[in-house]
Amino acid sequence: MADDHKHSATAAALLPLLGGAGNIVSVTNCMTRLRLELRDRALVRDGALRALPAVLGVVEDGESYQVVLGPGTVARVAPELERLTAGHGDGAVTAEALAERGAALRAERGARNATPGKLLLRRIAAIFVPLIPALIGCGIVAGLAGLLANLGWLPALAPALGAVASGFMSLIAVFVGYNTAKEFGGTPVLGGAVAAVIVFPGVARVDAFGEELAPGQGGVLGALAAALLATRIEKWCRRRVPEALDVLLTPTLTVLGAGLVTLYGLMFVAGEISTGIGHLADRLLAHGGAAAGFVLGGLFLPLVMLGLHQALIPIHTTLIQHQGYTVLLPILAMAGAGQVGAALAVYVRLSRNGSIRTTIRSALPAGLLGIGEPLIYGVSLPLGRPFVTACVGGAFGGGLVGLLNQLGDKVGSTAIGPSGWALFPLLQGNHGLGRTVVIYGAGLLAGYAAGFAATYFFGFGRGALEELNAAPATETVPEKAA
């Protein structure tokens, strides 16, 4: 009950700083952030909002205003804030002129930031991000089942845990199809129904151009394509089928048309693409592991800043579905290690700046668990150079993990979402759990050390270092100190 009161109090504290209930159009959340659609951005009191103890950072991304609260907390605060804003929609306190002004501001920001490519990536992320909790839960259960099997403990329980872990993955195509249709304006259950064709065991009896299909062939990519096609067919039918026959003909034509195309085309094409992704990832790390890891680990933080990391979600999911784990995520997770090392160096170098040191102390535990937003938006990015040196740390950590992969030690993750220390329960490799954990831990240490060293020696210009250390403890972080 105390926690419930705390989350209610957090929502109540956020509400006036966001411009009141009438200024909030919608409230959603991802794993760490509140995602808010606002009528008038100018009504937000940024300074007071950032000063709230529960707020770890603030991000503006296209049309959404995002408040970083951290995992667990955000899932509990979001419904409380949504409850407080209920009933304060278009006809409440906010005047029409204010709503129009907010719409104009959103359109202006949208024209500036929402490129077609980024919008597409956001829609793809909206399909896969809701699946992450199930991927994490099933991944940890699968790891526990494998551990019990390897140790020979509780032999009767291991198969049950394996079934619990594998059930979701065997039907993930259905969930992808459902979310795809929902995101692109179709009927979700029709998208799921068409995608279900891919995992139906009976497809093994279908002869598609001289080859028998295999259940699951095409995986999540096939499900995505099938549901997109189903949505297009459904919309076409809605425009042309007489209203009296719509309830019968539209779903029938949608399932029939998209289902047949899936069987006699999409499953084969998507299957080839999925296999190609697996081969490419293996070849990339087998033949250029050190260089590939260095580049991937070094560029991941900028990709996150640009929103381009969302393009990797289907790739991770495809690798997990076909190989059991994704070898890319542990390398990309090294970016967080570089961020932690950079923050530690900032803490040491700014020995007289109490404000920044306090921010680092509060954000560091989240950073160690792979939640990078508090350190990124509260420390390294506002300071400028430490963001670049954090990328250097990530590059060295990724390079080490990539090198060891090239030498034959694969390190993968059975789920996407966590990183940092939180990734340890999800690790899987080709040489046993103990060795995999050691290699991943060594990569983290390399990222911490390289990020610290690069930031300590190159993270500040002389003038900026003197200015920041001369700042009183009550000062806020400057916009740019590089």
Automatic annotation (TrEMBL):
Q: Where is the PTS EIIB type-1 domain?
A: 8-91
Q: What is its main location?
A: membrane
PROSITE patterns assigned: PTS_EIIB_TYPE_1, PTS_EIIB_TYPE_1_CYS, PTS_EIIC_TYPE_1
Q: Which UniProt keywords apply?
A: Cell membrane, Kinase, Membrane, Phosphotransferase system, Sugar transport, Transferase, Transmembrane, Transmembrane helix, Transport
Q: Where is the active site?
A: 30 (phosphocysteine intermediate)
How does this protein sit in the membrane?
Multi-pass membrane protein
Where it sits in the cell: the answer is: Cell membrane
Q: Where is the PTS EIIC type-1 domain?
A: 122-476
Which spans are transmembrane here?
12-31, 124-147, 153-177, 184-204, 245-270, 290-313, 325-348, 437-458
Q: Does the keyword Transmembrane apply?
A: yes
Entries under PANTHER family matching the protein: PHOSPHOTRANSFERASE SYSTEM TRANSPORT PROTEIN, PTS SYSTEM N-ACETYLMURAMIC ACID-SPECIFIC EIIBC COMPONENT
Q: What is this protein called?
A: PTS transporter subunit EIIC
Which source organism does the UniProt entry give? Streptomyces stramineus
